[in-house]
Amino acid sequence: MKQTIFIKNTPIDEKRIAFIERVVTRLTRRTRNRSSIVMTPYPISNCVTGSNITGNILKYMFCASGKIGRLMLCLDANPKDDAELIVLIKGGLSGKAETYLISSMRTELDLNIELKSGDRLTVSIKPLGEKTVIKEAWTSFLWVPEVKEAKMKQFSIDELEREGEKLIAIEEEV
Hints:
Structural class: alpha+beta
Mean pLDDT: 83
Largest sheet: 4 strands, antiparallel
CATH class of the domain at 42-146: Mainly Beta
């Protein structure tokens, strides 16, 4: 619904001033300065191949605090007698281990494990029967460092617009 805001040759009255103030108030609410950062998770992965894989398939040490989100395991075939996936976190004087039953070729687990700087992760696999032979195991997980570990870079609005124009120019070239 379109409203006529300013009618030509009419004096400014209280009603029009109230309307203008209401519009300005709404616009200022929308333009409040907000800042947010995107913490991209780091994918960390490994692949182990062999004639009959058992034991450690991935080891990793964290140099910053953060959180492990999702862990994914891909095997060369479905385990015939299932297998165990052991996720072990060691740090300082403490440790934590979790065991998961693997019955398919591809497994995704939401771990949501908090980590401290210096913690070490070991992922191991153990076939549960003589029929299960694993010849290839791919392991990958997503790690998100804490916000305090992130490097901040500030941009002015003009700089952001220039960066956006550069990206548009690059996309047009492609």
